[in-house]
Specification:
This protein has a domain at 90-152. Strand 4 and strand 5 (73-74) form a beta hairpin. With 276 residues, it is an alpha/beta fold. It has helices spanning 50-57, 102-108, 115-124, 138-150, 168-185, 228-249, 265-271; strands spanning 8-17, 27-35, 39-43, 68-70, 73-74, 83-86, 156-160, 188-192, 205-208, 219-220. The protein is globular, with a radius of gyration of 21 Å. It contains seven helices and ten strands.
């Protein structure tokens, strides 16, 4: 599709965000434009700002400037319909770990109104409607979340590491489903992940977030044009070198500290002796 502003699914221009006024920005000058039907991977190291960016796009964080739009609408002040955000924090909600049967849980969020898509996803994700939410594994609970979030027809899907708990077969079937949604319905997917196996044919674009910035132009990706894992590895090595340089310039360093206040086991246990 042509990159016309009226057709853009996601349009983010020069986004800068800090947790508090005066703090160093966690996102700075972020730019991302996606057309309808794009499947975009969001790559970056832990702490690069991927999750924060996705939550802003989902309308869950207020920014000072109005420079993020989805389907032509401001993501916070006038959020559009048809946007689904799925993140890892969902599994920490006590409700989804309570003694509720999966069929009742899905019906409580409208599953009965989307029976055909729900049943298709139940098969793809290998979900048992008779499971009790408090008895199943984290991976099975994640499958229920995906079924719940994907059973309505969405226009834009924001995924934040939600496939990390899935086994390789379920994950592969899910990726096929998502790719089909983009091809047949023109749905747009922005997917942050650190697992690149089997994704060589999934994206048509790749966005790199490096220490809160987008250091390179959006990569237009052709199926298996290169080893996706090696591309990610190269970028992450680059990210780590830059991060270490910045930390050293501020007098900070990760890993063991040579000037520790305790040098031996006795000193350590005396310092952290809570028996009294």
């Amino acid at each position: 599709m042509p990159s016309d502003d009226s057709l853009l699914a996601i349009d983010c221009n020069d986004l800068t965000f800090a947790w508090r006024d005066g703090d160093e920005p966690v996102l700075e000058g972020i730019n991302l434009q996606l057309d309808r039907g794009d499947c975009c991977l969001l790559m970056g190291a832990n702490g690069a700002g991927k999750s924060t960016f996705l939550r802003i796009l989902a309308g869950k964080r207020l920014t000072k400037t109005r420079n993020c739009r989805i389907l032509g609408q401001d993501v916070f002040m006038n959020p559009p319909g048809g946007v689904v955000y799925l993140g890892t924090e969902w599994s920490n909600n006590p409700v989804v770990r309570s003694d509720i049967v999966v069929s009742h849980f899905l019906d409580s969020v409208g599953g009965y109104r989307h029976r055909a898509r729900r049943d298709r996803l139940l098969q793809i994700l290998d979900v048992d409607l008779d499971w009790h939410m408090h008895e199943i594994s984290d991976g099975e609970r994640r499958r229920v979340q995906l079924c719940m979030g994907l059973m309505t027809e969405w226009d834009v899907l924001l995924l934040d590491e939600v496939t990390v708990d899935l086994d390789v077969l379920v994950r592969a079937d899910l990726i096929d489903f998502l790719k089909n949604e983009s091809q047949t319905r023109g749905a747009t997917i922005l997917y942050a992940t650190h697992i690149f196996d089997g994704l060589g044919e999934f994206p048509n674009k790749i966005c790199h977030i490096q220490l809160g910035k987008t250091p390179r132009a959006l990569v237009h990706w052709k199926p298996n044009q290169a080893d996706l894992f090696k591309v990610a590895l190269e970028w992450l090595r680059e990210d780590r070198i830059l991060r270490r340089e910045k930390e050293e310039a501020k007098g900070r360093m990760r890993g063991p500290k040579t000037d520790s206040s305790y040098k031996d086991a006795q000193t350590f246990f005396e310092k952290y002796d809570y028996s009294h």
